[in-house]
Amino acid sequence: MLPAPPPAPRQVVVLPHVRLFPYTPDKLFPGHPDCVWITCWVKVRIEDIQRVVARHYKMSRSDMLSSSRKVAIAHAQQVAMYLAKVLTGRSLPEIAHRFDGRDHTTVLHAVDKIAWLVGDRRKGRTRASRKLPVEIDTVLADEVELLKQQLQK
Predict the structure, then answer these.
(1) Binning pLDDT at 50, 70 and 90, where does residue 17 land?
(2) Which of 4, 14, 103, 117 is most exposed by smallest CB count within 10 Å?
(3) Are the CB atoms for 53 and 110 separated by under 8 Å?
(4) pTM of the full structure
(5) What is the DSSP string of 24-65?
């Protein structure tokens, strides 16, 4: 008896991972069961986050790194710090270092505050959120989602 022929080589299709990607391999490549679908993370850098957030809030990247306490600048910095934590998974001290040497507790406060305001309440009520409103800030939540989508392209 002859040995079975080796299996046909499989095609490998590498697609960038996008959280809301609505397609599966059978929808993307109908009639091609030999395709293997591999997703890969699009690497997002903290510098890219700072650039995109600064452009969204109509300020320069140097404003993003400044020690100014103006509300508009502080808000943009907090959004950028939140996105840096969520999208890169970097440690708080590393993110703080990329924001002109801030303390890691500044990043922790920013992440907790923005997470609370956009409705990510998995941690429960944190110290930063005690003085914040209970309602979700839908405008900010939409802005953060828009920025995430821009960064994950």
Answers:
(1) very low
(2) 4
(3) no
(4) 0.70
(5) -HHHHSTT-TTEEEEEEPPP--HHHHHHHHHHHTT--HHHHH
